[in-house]
Design a protein that fits this description.
223 residues, mainly alpha
C-alpha cells in the first residue's frame, strides 16, 4: 500500500470512531430522555441507534486488525491502532448501557407505579447530561488528538460520582418510605448505575486518547 493510501486509512479509522461515538452519544441522550419521560418511542429509537453502533464497531474492529496485519505499523501508528480498538470497545459498551436503559422503559415501566420516584427524575436527567457530555468531549478529544481535553474529561468524572451518590441516597429514602414500590426503585437504581458507567467508560476513552496523543499513561503523569 502506498504511504498516502495508508495515511488515508488511518484518517478514515479516526473518522469512523468519531461517527460511532457521536451516534452513541445520541443513543445515551435519547435513552435518558426516554427514561425521564417514560417514553417508549424514544426508547425504541435509542435501541435502534445501538444496533447501528454495533455494526459500526464490528467494521472498525475488522479494519484496525486488518491494517495491523497487513501494514505492520510501528511506533505511533501501532499505538493509535491498538488504542483505537480498545476505544471502540469502550464506545460499544456505552451503547449497550443506553440499550439497557431503553429496555427498562419498554419492558418494565409499563408495569410499575413510578409516581413516588418523580422527585429524583430531574437528578437522573442531570446525571445523564453530565455523562453524555463527558462522552461527547472524549470523542471530540479523540477526533482532534487532544490530550488536554482528554485530561479535562477525566477530571469531570468526580462530579458524576458525587451526583450519583446523592441520587442513590435519595432513592434509598424513597424505598424506605414506599416499600410497596420496591421494583420501581430497583429499576431506577439500575438505570442510574448504567449512567454512571457511561461516565466511567468516557474516562477510559479519555485515558486512551491521552496515550495516543502523548505515548504516556495519564495515570502515571506527574502533576
Amino acid at each position: 500500500m502506498l504511504r498516502a493510501n495508508y495515511l488515508q486509512v488511518l484518517a478514515d479509522i479516526r473518522e469512523d470512531i468519531t461517527k460511532m461515538g457521536e451516534k452513541t452519544v445520541l443513543s445515551v441522550m435519547t435513552a435518558v430522555s426516554s427514561f425521564a419521560l417514560n417514553n417508549v418511542e424514544q426508547a425504541q429509537l435509542s435501541r435502534q441507534y445501538e444496533k447501528e453502533v454495533d455494526a459500526m464497531y464490528k467494521a472498525i474492529d475488522d479494519k484496525c486488525i486488518t491494517t495491523i496485519a497487513t501494514q505492520q505499523p510501528a511506533a505511533a501508528d501501532l499505538r493509535f491502532l491498538v488504542s483505537t480498538i480498545k476505544i471502540a470497545n469502550e464506545v460499544e459498551r456505552v451503547a449497550d448501557y443506553a440499550n439497557n436503559i431503553a429496555k427498562i422503559v419498554q419492558k418494565k415501566f409499563p408495569k410499575l407505579d413510578l409516581a413516588s420516584l418523580a422527585p429524583v427524575t430531574d437528578g437522573v436527567t442531570k446525571l445523564g447530561e453530565l455523562a453524555a457530555a463527558m462522552l461527547a468531549d472524549a470523542i471530540r478529544a479523540y477526533a482532534l488528538n487532544d490530550a488536554e481535553l482528554a485530561t479535562q474529561v477525566r477530571e469531570r468524572d468526580a462530579e458524576v460520582n458525587k451526583l450519583n451518590k446523592a441520587l442513590i441516597k435519595d432513592i434509598l429514602a424513597i424505598a424506605m418510605a414506599n416499600p410497596q414500590n420496591q421494583e420501581a426503585v430497583l429499576e431506577y437504581n439500575v438505570a442510574i448505575r448504567y449512567i454512571e458507567r457511561v461516565a466511567d467508560r468516557a474516562t477510559n476513552i479519555a485515558e486512551g486518547v491521552f496515550y495516543i496523543a502523548t505515548g504516556f499513561n495519564v495515570k502515571d503523569k506527574k502533576s
